[in-house]
Specification:
heterodimer; A: mainly beta; six-stranded mixed beta sheet; three-stranded antiparallel beta sheet; 9 strands; globular; B: mainly beta; seven-stranded mixed beta sheet; four-stranded antiparallel beta sheet
Amino acid sequence: QSALTQPASVSGSPGQSITISCTGTSSDVGGHNYVSWYQQHPGKAPKLMIYDVDNRPSGVSNRFSGSKYGNTASLTISGLQAEDEADYYCCSYSSYTGSSTRVFGGGTRLTVL
Amino acid sequence: QVQLVQSGAEVKKPGASVKVSCKASGYTFTSDYMHWVRQAPGQGLEWMGIINPRGGTTTYAQELQGRVTMTRDTSTSTVYMELSRLRSEDTAVYYCARGSRYMDVWGKGITVTVSS
């Protein structure tokens, strides 16, 4: 199965908002409400930022929000801060092979200008 | 607090196998699934598979079927991932991560290097 499609990079200035898209198919993003988003700083393990499309774990800033329309999920970060600069990955439950697997997006590097 | 402690770095030759571990603490081991995810140098995250610690059932990524085996030991709250017939492209950081629909707690990762 192919990875979900994310833009390779996005950028924004402090205080601005950015949106990262994650496009899949009806077998993954479009067919299930099990999309999650992860933030990864260099040399560190990924951190869960959004789960089940639009839910925020305890401790994650409310500047992070998620949504989904059709086969595309999105992560929006408002009020950009320097510490938001990182790689972001989407992940979806997938029934593509007939089994319950997961698939990641290729990742998006966020640069805070 | 919930912790996943992974074993140390490994260096293997092509064709060999590697078995890495992930010891869970701070929660009921059999109450949640465990994923394995890897990341090759400079690349993105790749999902490898999932194990249910309660019954030991597994689902693997199609690309790794036949080479990957995930097991668990409930007496020590540890999950294992063995990858066989290693090739250079298997050089990566290997993470365990707790969860089913999503991965809420991650280990720090194990570097596995495959080199002749």
